Amino acid sequence: MVNEQVSKAIRQSNNKVVRLLIKNRVVRAKFKHKFKRELKRVNQQLYEKIQLISVLSITNQELNIQNNEKNQRITELIITHKRISAVNEKFLAVNEELILQAIETEKRVLKLTQTHHKNRILNEQLNHMQKLESISRLTSGIAHYFNNILGCVLGYNEMNQDVSDNIIDESLKAELESNTKQIDVAGKRATELIGKMLTYCRQDTVKFKIDVKPTVEVIDEVLVMLRPALTSEIEIQTKLECAANIQIDVMDLRQILTELVINARDAMKECGGIIVISLQIVRNVRPYCVACAGKISGNFIELSVTDNGSGIEPDVISRMFDPFFTTKEQGEGTGLGLSIVNGIVHRSQGHILVDSTMTAPNPGTTFRLLFPILTVI
Fold first, then answer.
1. How far apart are CA 24 and CA 253, in angstroms?
2. CA distances (Å), 248 to each of 186, 253, 285, 358, in order?
3. Distance between CA 116 and CA 322 in Å, rounded?
4. For residues 270 and 281, what is the distance between their CA atoms, to the nearest angstrom?
5. Helix (H, G, I), strand (E, B) or coil at 351
6. pTM for this one?
7. Is 347 helix (H, G, I), strand (E, B) or coil?
8. What span, in angstroms and rounded, lies between the C-alpha atoms of 324 and 74?
9. What is the pLDDT of residues 132-162, one digit of tens each?
10. From start to end of 41-125, where are the E strands?
11. SS3 category, 352
């Protein structure tokens, strides 16, 4: 409306100066109006920028605060890490010391265990020696009485020989002479055995002479003697892998084999089985003797008797060489057989091992007698 009026006034005015002034005024009014709008817009933008700057400033402050907190946390973490490192170093030092102490303790425990084991072996050996001393005294007494009885038996046997000379019946005379001859042989062997038992029991310093025969021959002799005492359900096999001779008296060897074969027979009396007698050289043997608990080391001549009976319980194995110990029923055993075997074997500088199992499918027991390998002079 104003612009139209101004335009109209300019057209109506004839004065050039007036028209210029009016036009100038109009231009100034337009410029002022436009400047106000532009200024308002600029102010608005400036306000918005100020607001943005304010927001950014607040955000920057918050970030600074967060950075400060992070720096503090980092500082705390560094301090904590240093403390943990110091504690860890102390822990490692203490742990190393504990490890050293544990090693020393283990060494002491091992040493104590070895000492205890040695003491146990020494105690077992002492008990064994005491048992041997007891059985030696008992054997001495029995041997004296048995020697007297044998004297009577041999005396009456000589009388039977005199009587047989007066018998007319030749067949009866021959049978009686054969019987008296066997009695005389057995009696003399028994007398010789008793003499050696008495010599051993007295612990004489003079060594009696031993009668050594080839071991294989003695085994054959004993088997011939024992076959009638075995049932038809029991078979005897031999595995004689070497010709080495055990330096032991022939009567002692016969007694050992007899005792072990009879024990094997009794172990298989219900169902029968096989008894194996073997002779071989074994090398680098390093176990412990089951009878005297002594450590064994070296090469030996091994005489073994194996059966496939019911086996022996471990508790029985540790006691079966004790005098008068037996698992047989009353009247079936004296408990002296294995004790005598033990005495003979150790008197010959030997040792005894026992392998036994009670579980199927292969139950059974093996007595392994180890004798030193010596050269006959």
1. 158
2. 20, 7, 21, 32
3. 23
4. 33
5. strand
6. 0.52
7. helix
8. 86
9. 666 666 666 666 667 777 777 777 777 777 7
10. none
11. strand
Pick the CATH number of 215-372 from 3.40.50.10170, 3.40.1440.10, 3.40.50.300, 3.30.565.10: 3.30.565.10
Q: In the numeric block, which tokens belong to residue 41?
A: 């817009």
Output the six-digit token pair for 269: 């009396």
In the block, residue with structure tokens 């071991």:
215
Q: How distant is the alpha carbon of residue 40 from its chain centre?
A: 102
Would you state the structure tokens that stand for residue 53, as one six-digit string?
């700057």
Strand ranges in 231-363 using DSSP code E only, listed in sequence order = 234-240, 273-285, 298-307, 351-357
Domain-wise residue ranges, the chain = 127-202, 215-372
Residues in the chain, how many?
377
> Residues 6 or more apart from 146 whose CB is under 8 A from it?
190, 194
Residue with tokens 């330096």: 247
Q: What pLDDT digit, counting tens, does each position of 42-78 carry? A: 788 888 888 888 888 888 888 888 888 888 889 999 9
Q: Please report where in the chains the tokens 């101004």 appear, as a residue.
A: 6
